[in-house]
Design a protein that fits this description.
This protein is mainly β. Helix content is 0%, strand content 53%. The chain contains no helices and 28 strands. A 4-stranded antiparallel sheet has the order 1-2-3-4, with no helix packed on it. A hairpin with a 3-residue loop joins strand 22 (216-221) and strand 23 (225-229).
Length: 278
């Protein structure tokens, strides 16, 4: 299950500089309180693949076997959605608009009262979601899958890449400026009219993309791949640790966090990277 002494981390959710959550293959959520990482024991033993929450009193962690854990600010409890298909992550707009998505095109939606299935019109795995609001959400997945949610249903869009390219992450500054990353060093940009490929300078699998503005975007992935976009070009970042990076998220230009294998968590403070691993 592990490649090292520490669990491989698969997702990270920062709320404040002294409140960050990570999940990974050991199935144990961990919380950073500003001084140390503290594991949160639950009844779950399944690997946790993703974590998301609109606030610290509503955090979802999802994973293998369809496990869904919900944190209310005090306790983690297991949620029965009625589905047991493995989930890759969660994303939402607020407490009453939450999507859980994963293997085989599985897509669950919480409307504040009940869980429903949403048809994404694909049998391929879903890996990433991002949106401006509940009526404009972009979803990406395996074999070049891209879907657009209009608040009621998911619409097929022309596949953006060849089928051998999987798309893992999506993020944007607005509906007129969206970025997608994927396998084989793929980065795509939507300018409001067309999707166009960007020169990443790498062939590594890029698993996650996030930024603070159109001139400050990060992408991370396999074999310690770390890239930064300054609004003009993508440039490699010298990695602080030689690890496999799975997610990048942040709170601002001086609070950027990257999670990865072997308990890796690194932080950028606007000037330099530092190690805050488990």
């Amino acid at each position: 299950m592990f490649t090292g002494e520490k669990p491989d981390l698969l997702d990270i959710m920062p709320f404040r500089e002294d409140s960050i959550y990570v999940v990974g293959k050991d199935g144990i959520p961990q919380h950073w309180d500003g001084e140390e990482w503290l594991p949160v024991r639950t009844e779950n033993t399944n690997p946790l693949m993703g974590i998301w929450g609109p606030n610290e009193k509503c955090i979802y962690a999802v994973g293998i076997g369809g496990v869904v854990l919900l944190y209310n600010g005090k306790d983690w409890t297991r949620v029965d959605t009625g589905s047991y298909d493995s989930l890759n992550s969660a994303y939402g707009i607020d407490e009453n608009n939450v999507f859980l998505y994963g293997v085989g095109g599985r897509m669950l939606y919480w409307d504040g009262e009940k869980w429903d299935y949403r048809e994404p019109n694909t049998i391929h795995d879903l890996f990433g979601m991002w949106g401006e609001d509940i009526d404009h959400i972009h979803t990406v997945g395996g074999e070049g899958i891209y879907r657009f949610y209009d608040g009621k249903e998911f619409h097929r869009r022309e596949d953006l890449t060849d089928e051998e390219i999987s798309l893992f992450g999506v993020w944007g500054t607005s509906g007129e400026n969206i970025y997608i990353c994927g396998s084989h060093g793929t980065i795509l940009n939507f300018d409001g009219t067309d999707w166009k490929p960007m020169e990443s300078g790498t062939e590594e699998y890029l698993l996650s993309i996030w930024g603070t503005s159109a001139e400050d975007i990060y992408a991370v992935g396999d074999n310690a791949a770390m890239l930064h976009y300054d609004g003009k070009k993508w440039s490699p970042i010298e990695p602080l640790k030689d690890e496999y990076y799975t997610k990048v998220k942040g709170l601002g230009p001086d609070q950027v966090y990257v999670a990865g294998e072997n308990g890796t968590v690194i932080k950028y403070n606007g000037k330099e990277w530092s190690d805050m691993s488990l």
